[in-house]
Known about the structure:
Residues 10-192, 200-337 form the LolA-like domain. The protein is an alpha+beta fold.
Amino acid sequence: MKASCACSEVTGVISDWISENVSAFVEVVNADRVSTSLSSRNKTFSQWITIRADNNTFVYNGTTGQCDKSNSSLLQSFPQLSKITKNLTSMSSLIKGLVDFSNKYRGKLSSNKIVAGIEGVYWVSCADGVDGSINLQVEVVFAGKKSFEPPTYDNPLVLFVQIAEYGNFSDNSTLISQLSLTFNSYDLLSEDDNRLFMPPPGVICNGWKEEQVPVNFSDPFSVLIEVTDDQKHHYESIVHYSASQKVVMVKGARKDGIIPFINEQNVPDNVITVVHDFSTGYEYQLDHSQCVNLSALPSESEDVVVSNSTYTMRPVLNILLSPEISFGNYGKLMSENGRLHTVYRGIKNKTNEKVEVHLDGDQLYSYTIFKNVGKEMLISSNMRLTPTPYTTIDSVMENMQGCFAQSAHTDSSNSTFTIDVRSKSLKDVYEHGIGKVTLAIAKALSEVAPVNPLRVRAFFDSGNDNLLRVFFSVEEKTDIKPSLVPGYNYTAEVPTLVLIEKLNGTVSHGDWKFSVSTSGMNAEEWVVAAKSLRRYTPSSPDPITYYGYTGGAMFVLGVFTLVLGVGIGAGGVFFVTRRQRISNLAYQVFE
Length: 591
């Protein structure tokens, strides 16, 4: 006989002939864990998981839904087996102990027996005084070398084990206990079967070793979030989070009226995009084409931390993985995309919700919330995150700028100016991106004088001298006060005229430079030509030539028409009168 190998699965049946209890078992073994589950006729289910590294065992009770630390394995719950071996951590250790037992208590071979359709060699041993007083009869059936072999194992394999305790071998009525194990199958495992080594989805074991989730978030962190709820409704949103830019953008559908990721409520239904700008303290609510609302940052949003009336960004790690949750590493699973994911589970103390996160390497792949429904653990919502590296704030920048145009207390239509940029052309603008160049100009202007960069709009063209010409306008300061954020002073913001005066003083004394970010952390300096600042005045249209009569001619024509009309009228009256007189005369003649 031989023990089963690592990374294996063994199935079978355990029968207690005295209590008439029959249970099916499945045991899986790998280098890290041993998991054995037991299912009985009355539909009860239990699972024992032993962690090899620290020899801790956990038991999941399918009846109560609880998972707790245990001092014993499944096999140790059958005391008869301890007469064979003290090492009952797995079926493999049991069979190894059985081999040692056969060497100590010699038995004999008897006629072959058929077990599960396989002819096996029958061995029996009777041992007197085991453990001091017990008389033990051990029967084993194992597959001979000529028997059918499993595709992944070689014979001999154990097919059946029965242990009986007697008070007296010569008297069957002294039978104390009788336990048998029938082994139905042996097989090898693949990584697709890793779920067998952990408790059911959503189950948290008390006492499981806690570990920090080793997740890494890039900056910017841009993902497509797909949420599926317990009703199978599907929602998709784009999230862009950048600690360096101090901005959070969420764009797309919402679940139960709540903006995903930031969990903000009471946002108008027509709002498609919400942007939180922590560099200035504003929230921008946008639809597909324009600004809907400009306001201070909300205090209840998940991405906002308020301390001493100052608003700061909550780290993305703490938004997605709340610090209140203590996670444990429950193993690895093969995902639908063929990649091996590490599974972490924890409990939200405030709501008692069970959370399961999957990591693809050091990247967060999914986040699932479970809820208890009776004794079942059901999925409340599942969130999957897919990187979208090309998502930027530039896509909504124009609508954000529109918020200041709508809220400004004065008209800025006459606040358009031009500057010339040396050695640059429209091609350079398109290569870097219009939004990126516009933002670079806006930030540079805010360094000349304190203004919100989003008050600045820019357009680009080429001048007659082939220099890049920048047309920019600056909206007036809004009356809407932002939240208090580090590094920004709303009260210090200046009117447009003050900014232009300071810029004119800067440009008139020499070249002015602004930095445009390039790939990586690099930046490129663009140089504004000295004395090139001018107010933009649209050229007057060419004089329009009108063709037709002059006013005097029209007056004469009118008088002539009037006289002609009077003459025609008088002639008509004369003609009618004359005709009437002729008619009367004719009647007189015929009379």
